[in-house]
Amino acid sequence: MVDVDTFLTTLYVMVDDFCQSHPPKDRRGGPKASLAPSEVVTLAIFSRWSRFTSERDFYRYAMRHLRDAFPTLPHRSQFNRLVRSQVGLIEGVALHLADAMEAQKCAYEVLDSSAMPVRDAKRRGSGWLAGCADIGWSNRLGWYEGFRLLMAVNPVGIITGFGFGSASTTDQQVAETLFTVRHRPDRRLASAGCASRGPYVADKGFEGTENHRRWLECYGAQVLHPPKRNSRKA
Fold it and tell me: In Å, how far from its chain's centre is CA 20?
């Protein structure tokens, strides 16, 4: 088990090396941010560690234990704004780390989606994400309002690509977009990553003979999933 200090130091060095080799093209005016981009990305990645139960839980830990490493750590609301301003950089670092670990040199990738609720689906009004988030169904949550996150992961758990759509979007629809972008890369959707070298293993949410045929013929993406119940296929 790697201790926190070693993990954070290693992560920061990797992120900072990437930031130094990919300087921002456009520099924003205004006062200097309290945290450097490499610090923001490091903390954003670290905050997703499984030991933290929530965003508040992470920031309580950071304020108590990480002030020596990040002495200019701002208020949580300001940190959240900094994270949102570095979304493109976070995506770039994630894909860089997957490439550095040769994540796609594997026999197959696992494809799955997850619900990302943003507010109670029973609340009235359109909310601040109207036109982007909507209401959909999750086997884990039931009806929820938010987004559907799609991830491609290699056998050891490294994310090789990701994307999201509104909650009402089906698994087949977000998969179609992922395969399309991986087949014909678009820098605006770089988070999709590169095409898999082997088949995709998925659950029944990605079933459909016509879909599978089109994905294979148009994008070279072979999808394997368990047969339906009572199916005669092995």
Answer: 23
For the chain, what is the radius of gyration of the CA atoms? 20
- Could you please report the per-residue DSSP string of the chain? ---HHHHHHHHHHHHHHHHHHS--SS---SSPPSS-HHHHHHHHHHTTSTT--SHHHHHHHHHHHSTTT-TT---HHHHHHHHHHTHHHHHHHHHHHHHHTTTT-SS-EEEEEEEEEEE-TT-SS--TTBTTBEEEEETTTEEEEEEEEEEEE-TTS-EEEEEEEETT--HHHHHHHHHHHHHS--GGGGGG-PPPSSPEE--GGG--HHHHHHHHHHH---EE-PPPTT-S--
Spatial neighbors of 127 by CB under 8 A, at least 6 apart, are 118, 119, 133, 145
Supply the pLDDT for residue 50: 67
Task: Give residue-wise pLDDT tens across range 103-158.
Answer: 888 899 999 999 999 888 888 877 777 778 899 999 888 999 999 999 999 998 88
Q: How far apart are CA 207 and CA 102, in angstroms?
A: 29
Report pTM.
0.75
- Stretch 65-92: mean pLDDT: 91
